[in-house]
């Protein structure tokens, strides 16, 4: 019989060109552990998933308690399930007044699909506007919104009425017109390599959408749930979306997503056709229980208060002539080098030293740094020391 490692290697060889980097047997807090007891500092959190660390005890407890009650009962209709109801209520309390109708799904891509359907249904328009280098998911609708042609070419035809405009460019805002159902924007672009728009730009975008009656959808699948130091990244910019999407860090490691809007908008999915959007597993009770515990951990353990100081510690420590730039909003960080070759050597060397980092889908010269928000200052120092050692050895 093949060991898990052999099975994985066999599968990997058949399906991708990526080398096996590390085998993980257990994860806890900010660490991953290999089968021979190797310890790795996790600087990417499963791409913004483990914001409260791996297997946070309160998240595990909530999961166990729900497992003892029921798993799945019914998608819609007559049965009231406490976990989604409680989670929807708690989410609404983190949001500006009125953004309180929550539709649960199981992933980020699904949340984006739901948000786009909702915008089309509510406005009666078809055009969707997204941005260069945007990443919104892998399903056919969300893929259509992605701003990298490389990812879309093989799958055309995709959604027909999608237009891309330049990120953070005021001059392009006049392309948003009374034909536009929705503009969808990552509040902070993630896979583009952490691109933070200006406050002036986001406020002008908000105003333009309001003027022409287009809905503003903010995708906070990567930037939400505390990642940037506020519960939602849009709080930094003093704007409010019409529809918000979230997933990833929301479940504390369990699969869940949501699109959230005001009641008058969300109600347009209820009729004609009846139940215009349905998903069997969306808002799974176990995921909702985990998500509620995650939300409480972020609020009650004071994680938000230290995000900026922790990000600054990374910036103070990761100083080297090979580091061209560090872009960030809170602990959503990109460390830029001159090329993918340099970066790849540093990432591989850092793994050997016990630190897991990564690059970005649409920005392959920048290192992703997005550790659990629970990371301590001494852990940041250790991670930076090891990354710097890798830089010194590889540059
Ligand atoms: N939107 C953003 C901003 C993302 O970063 C991602 C995933 O990386 C998605 C959507 C898609 O989420 P999922 O992979 O859960 O479908």
From TrEMBL:
It comes from the Bacteria. Keywords: Aminotransferase, Pyridoxal phosphate, Transferase. Its cofactor is pyridoxal 5'-phosphate. One of its GO terms (molecular function) is pyridoxal phosphate binding. The keyword Transferase applies. CDD domains: OAT_like. It holds the Pfam family Aminotran_3. Belongs to the class-III pyridoxal-phosphate-dependent aminotransferase family. This is Aspartate aminotransferase family protein. The lineage of its organism: Bacteria, Pseudomonadati, Bacteroidota, Cytophagia, Cytophagales.
